[in-house]
Amino acid sequence: MRRFLAASLTLFAAACATAPKQGTEPVSEIPQSTHTRGAIVGLTAEDLVRRLGTPALQIREGDSLKLQFRSDQCVLDAYLYPTGNAPYRVTYVDARSRSLGDVDQALCISSIEAP
What we know:
Beta-lactamase Inhibitory Protein, Chain:B, domain 1; 4 helices; 4 strands
């Protein structure tokens, strides 16, 4: 009897579930501002310098490269790693205020961008 009751409840719950709406497509790509971290990730060092200007600091550690860019409002660290035979590409970005506090990455990038 318990098995019948459990099976009945499962079927009842499945029947009550709503079907996905027809004609709606899942959001696969959300448009990003050109100032977001996503717009920086994947760039080469050359692309990054062209976009943000000359880095204030450049550090090599093993096979990684860190480029640091600064404005009056913030500091942006871009970490680049080699991808096979391709040139170094940005894989991680970190932004902070000059006093080491939290800062919005988009605002930081826009404050650094070369005109």
